């Protein structure tokens, strides 16, 4: 069963890679792999978004997030501002162009997912989303507990 699950996961990852590569010209300005970062910045903008938080949220090394942010700044989609509570740090904000491009990217992905799920019932979609959310949380929790498990051995 685990082998079958791993094969299915590889297939899902391939589908996601293909989805990410199928980029509409409307959001070609977004560096590959950064739509999620743009989306996270938008959700955290009101309180100020820090690169360190993004790295933790995405499970990425801070240097990886730093390169993504630099690419977004160069593309004119994100600006850095001095953090009012800590002048050494900066907060990230979407530009108007960043908001427009993110809206276009999300609309594109929503349309692709809707097309892929057109033969699914609302119940199937809800069940799939719930199972996928549970799987992701359990896998993340297992990862976060791994140091404790290793120490107990």
From TrEMBL:
CDD domains: HTH_ARSR. The keyword Transcription applies. GO terms for biological process: response to stress. Residues 1-137 form the HTH marR-type domain. Keywords: DNA-binding, Transcription, Transcription regulation. InterPro entries: ArsR-like_HTH (IPR011991), HTH_MarR-typ (IPR000835), MarR/SlyA-like (IPR039422), Tscrpt_reg_MarR-type_CS (IPR023187), WH-like_DNA-bd_sf (IPR036388), WH_DNA-bd_sf (IPR036390). One of its GO terms (molecular function) is DNA binding. The keyword Transcription applies. SMART domains: HTH_MARR. PANTHER family: MARR-FAMILY TRANSCRIPTIONAL REGULATOR (PTHR33164:SF57), TRANSCRIPTIONAL REGULATOR, MARR FAMILY (PTHR33164). This is HTH marR-type domain-containing protein.
